[in-house]
Specification:
Elements (H helix, E strand, L loop, with lengths): L1 E4 L9 H17 L2 E8 L4 E11 L5 E6 L3 H8 L2 E7 L10 E11 L2 H14 L20 E15 H4 L4 E7 L2
Length: about 180
């Protein structure tokens, strides 16, 4: 993963600020459990927002488990581009806010990713073991579920305590 930091010239940005951005992103990901996933129904030209529990890896990929029959699953099959919001919805208006707006591509995981993402999911949400007896049960025809991976390519970070009131930072992630 290679990150390009926006908001000012990259060369002028101090290493300390780059570290602050990455620390802020990881802290927000760790402190929250739900994401809002936005997809587009191309057939009806209709946007769709859904919530899902998520896990993440060190490369800032997100993994979520959902019904394979859900509208967002069908939309992802038509168009893999997604937007994601992650934030604490109990933040009070007028306080120092923090959250992430993310953009990327989403797809069902392959078997190798399922082993990795499924293990992360079971670690973060141990009660899932009631439904998933083996990692491969995440992609279950019986349960009609799939695990998805979102490969993030852009993150807009709001952390007003770190960056200042009404300030944000953006990064572009080159996953190629």
């Amino acid at each position: 993963m290679v990150c390009s930091f926006l908001k000012g010239e990259v060369n002028k940005m101090k290493e300390k600020e780059k570290e602050q951005i990455m620390t802020s992103i990881k802290h927000i990901l760790e402190q929250n459990m739900l994401l809002t996933l936005s997809t587009l129904d191309k057939k009806n030209n209709q946007p769709c927002s859904s919530t899902a529990y998520y896990v993440f890896d060190n490369d800032l990929n997100l993994y979520f488990w959902t019904s394979s029959n859900a509208i967002h699953s069908k939309n992802i099959k038509q168009n893999p581009k997604v937007a994601v919001n992650i934030f604490d919805s109990s933040q009070k208006w007028g306080t120092l806010l923090k959250g992430l707006q993310m953009f990327g591509k989403c797809r069902p995981v392959n078997n190798k990713e399922l082993l990795f993402g499924g293990a992360l999911y079971l670690k973060r949400f141990p009660k899932v073991i009631q439904f998933v007896k083996k990692i491969f049960d995440f992609n279950s025809k019986k349960l009609e579920t799939k695990m998805y991976k979102i490969t993030i390519n852009k993150i807009k970070v709001f952390d007003e305590k770190v960056f200042g009131k009404e300030e944000f930072r953006e990064i572009i992630i080159n996953n190629g």
